[in-house]
Amino acid sequence: MTARRPRRNYWLSAVAILASIVVFLVPFAFIVLTAVKDRQQAALLDFSWPENFQVVQNFVDVVKARDYMLIIAFINSTILTVASVAIMVVLAAMVAYVWQRRKSRWNLLINFLVLSGLIIPPAVVPTIWVLQKLGLFRTMPGLILVEVAFGISFAILLFRAFIATIPRELDEAAIIDGASPFRLFFRVIFPLLRSVAITVIVVQSVTVFNDFVNPLYFLPGDQNATVQLTLYNFSSQFTSQYNLLFMNILLITIPPLIMFMFFNRRIVAGMTSGAIKG
Amino acid sequence: MTTIEAQRAHRGEGTELPARRTRKRSPYPSWFYLPAALIYGVLFLVPTFASFYFSLTRWTIFDSHFIGFDNFVNFFREPALVSGLTHTLVYAVVTSGLKVVLGLLLAVLLTSQIVGRGYLRSVVFFPVLVSTIGVGLTFTVLMNPERGLINESLAVVGIQGPGWLTDPSYALLSVALVDVWKGVGLATLIFIAGIVSIPQEYFEAARVDGASPTASFFKIVLPLARPATVTVVILSLIGGLRSFDLIWAMTRGGPGFTSDVIASVIYKQYQAGFYGLSTAGNVILFLVVTAIILPLYWFLSRKEVEL
């Protein structure tokens, strides 16, 4: 649109780009540079070019530390993320589908419960108490179910908004063709949810992968530490080895970075879904 | 006639058909709720309700002993714990206020004709996806009073930087600033989505009438991006009131108790084995969150209807 603004504001652009480099890129550059320094230079904590690059050495050291703790942590975090997000997607889609399609007096209650799940801070120690009663405290299945319970509200809201755009005529056609409710949902509707499901998967896996609080409370102990817990524990152990600490930070930043590069649009769509409707 | 029928069909059964038949044959079975309701009920609703009871007890996971409101009395008698409450409020207000202001300004900037818009949007948003612990540890190093990059850069221009995390009067605000650094990208995105949804004709009409950019910001963008503002305020207030991991990674509530918030008090009391007191902290956090969010949400969305 030429009438909108005669020309681009180059001066403002230069200031904005410069400011973005100082404010946002320098911290990341600092992480990368410190991660590849040797121990003495990293301890200076300054922003400088590494004198000798120790990429492989630092990588091996941080992986080997405390009996390959980081590898175990990555495996644990992967299991946690994949399992909890998979359960969340299927269960949230089922709830959102029936909630959106059927008008009943329960809908108000569901609305209230879903909003509560978004707003209310979870009660920590009572959750531990419940998990203990079920024999799930300090177990991976327990933590997976906790992540599902705390994250499902957001997933339900995203699915519901999308399901509202799928015409009901489709359901009716499938019913006339003799599809059972189960088949109708899993064969007809669920495949259509692909695009919003990807959004939910990407946003929730970044959230679960980065989660620190829930593993801290519900899955303590070194045996089944997640990457965030490992990083936190390293920070007290590696006070004199900043190169290894930052190598660790760098490594756990890579999965979200990959998500961001491939699914930027989806993440943006998911996270801004509330902006227009309010 | 046909339209009414169509509407009826659209509304689905339930109201028109006999109840028994619907329940049997509805293509939208209630048992679809069941698995989610079970997990959510057992691991979220039960603990939430149980917290009200256990906050009134002296509690070791295995047995509890009813002591009335002693935990709450203790909480409000202990200055270190009460200050946690005020810090929570300060932290939430500072972070969400800055996120709204900076997010809106950045969104206006990033929807204008500017070079490198895609790059700028990405770079502002990326910290949202990075591990909070990682960000916290990085900034703890950058904010090191003697050797940290921030104070060294300030020294170059001749400013003596404060001990960001070691000075009791700055610690909480420093953490809040890092929170804003990490979270402002999300606020910006939400504002961008709100601004983009405003019809271009309004801006054109305003320009034809000779409105200045400032006037169109205050008269068009601000009122029409209101749903986005509501979303940002609510989301960042909820996040700010509940925030724990960044504070824990950077200061662990210190120096002293000067950056303790309710969430970190809950964790400390839990670690110390005072489960009842910890749960009382949880109930207080619950009350604070609902007492702030519900009226605010009601007030903000009511205003929206009036517009």
Q: Which structural category do the helix and sheet elements of chain B fall into?
A: mainly alpha
| Structural class designation of chain A | mainly alpha
Q: Compute the CA-based radius of gyration of chain B.
A: 25 Å
Give the termini distance of chain B in whole angstroms: 36 Å
CATH fold-level assignment of the largest domain in chain B: MetI-like fold
Overall pLDDT confidence of chain A: 87
- The succession of helices and strands of chain B, N to C, reads HHHEEHHHHHHHHHHHH
Q: How many individual helices of chain A?
A: 13
Largest sheet properties of chain B:
2 strands, antiparallel
Organism (chain B): Asanoa hainanensis
Membrane topology (chain B): Multi-pass membrane protein
Protein name (chain B): Raffinose/stachyose/melibiose transport system permease protein
Family (chain B): Belongs to the binding-protein-dependent transport system permease family.
